[in-house]
Specification:
- Strand 4, helix 7 and strand 5 form a beta-alpha-beta unit.
- The protein has a seven-stranded mixed sheet with strand order 3-2-1-4-5-9-7, with helices on both faces. A two-stranded antiparallel ribbon has the order 6-8.
- Helix content is about 45%, strand content about 15%.
- The chain has about 325 residues and is α/β, with parallel strands linked by helices.
- It has a single domain, classed as Rossmann fold.
- The chain is globular.
Length: about 325
């Protein structure tokens, strides 16, 4: 997590800079920190996800279909909603759930993708946001978009895994995540790390594709094989992890119907834009993606999957 390329002025140090205890700029990377945070600290699942999202096929596909801002499930109000519109609606709904979100808020987005949520939070609320993400390819696009938007000083983009967050204890007010925790091979460790870095009273809000509580064993194997995972979480599983580390539940907003709609829309866009995608993605990748998306749609329609917004709070004492 040591790619501190976007920093604040010395007289107004960003709180993320204190992790490294000095300012880094331009394209310099401190070898000692990068060595410490290298692949050896990634779980197998996280490292697999990193390889996938660093691939040119994945980067070009997601940037084309989602528009280069978001890479997460959207909230759909009508059949005419675009993926871009629906995805942004998710961000707005989550932000509206966070208490006292303002310019003084220190937000950490784990699994931040292209940083669309971070840019929204900075522009809408004036927050200071840290983006922690495993894909260096996505992170570079994130930095470029931040520079174009003129908000680089408000967003720090850091390479790394949420299973080992390089932040001091009690250093952030909000930890935010969208459809990323499923890629962890140690989700309990993620919850421990989130709880550790949150200040007292801090909030953890996230979305994640999950299995339903009634999902039969083994029916999700085609999905798990496709994304190289052993399991998916569930609402009750995440409630259990949250309670074990000391979180108080604020809300669980079950929005599972949007999962089927979203993956169906992505599949439709793949087919509609195939003539464009084939110029930037391999035939094999698009074929596998089509098959994988259909698995998500079928499992969702069968009631085997769930998705929603989960929000927890660290105790104030």
């Amino acid at each position: 997590y040591a790619d501190f390329q976007e920093t604040h002025k010395v007289e107004d140090p960003d709180f993320y800079v204190h992790v490294a205890e000095k300012l880094y700029k331009n394209e310099e990377r401190p070898a000692t920190i990068m060595d410490k945070l290298g692949n050896a600290h990634y779980s197998r699942a996280v490292d697999t996800a990193r390889e996938y999202y660093n691939s040119s096929d994945a980067d070009r596909f997601y940037a084309t279909i989602w528009g280069g801002e978001d890479i997460h499930i959207g909230l759909y109000q009508s059949e005419s909603d675009s993926i871009v519109e629906a995805s942004r609606r998710t961000v707005k709904k989550m932000a509206g759930y966070v208490d006292q979100l303002d310019a003084a808020s220190r937000v950490l987005d784990i699994g931040s993708g292209y940083g669309g949520s971070a840019r929204f939070l900075v522009k809408q609320y004036g927050c200071q946001v840290g983006c922690l993400n495993l894909s260096e390819v996505q992170n570079q696009r994130n930095r470029e978009l931040n520079r174009k938007a003129g908000i680089s000083l408000s967003i720090n983009v850091v390479d790394g895994s949420f299973e080992e967050i390089p932040m001091p204890d009690h250093s952030v007010d909000v930890v935010w995540s969208q459809d990323a925790i499923l890629h962890s091979g140690n989700r309990g460790k993620v919850f421990q790390e989130v709880h550790r870095v949150l200040a007292k009273g801090g909030q953890f809000i996230f979305t994640d594709p999950m299995k339903s509580e009634t999902c039969p064993p083994d029916v999700l194997q085609p999905i798990l094989d496709r994304i190289h995972l052993d399991s998916l979480g569930s609402i009750e599983y995440y409630r259990k992890l949250a309670a074990e580390v000391g979180f108080r539940e604020i809300r669980v907003d079950d929005l599972s119907s949007n999962l089927v709609v979203h993956y169906g829309r992505v599949l439709q866009e793949l087919l509609a834009q195939r003539h464009t995608l084939i110029r930037v993605c391999t035939e094999e990748y698009l074929g596998n993606m089509k098959t994988g998306l259909q698995h998500w749609v079928d499992a969702g329609k069968a009631g085997h999957l769930s998705w929603g917004i989960l929000q927890f709070q660290k105790n104030t004492d």
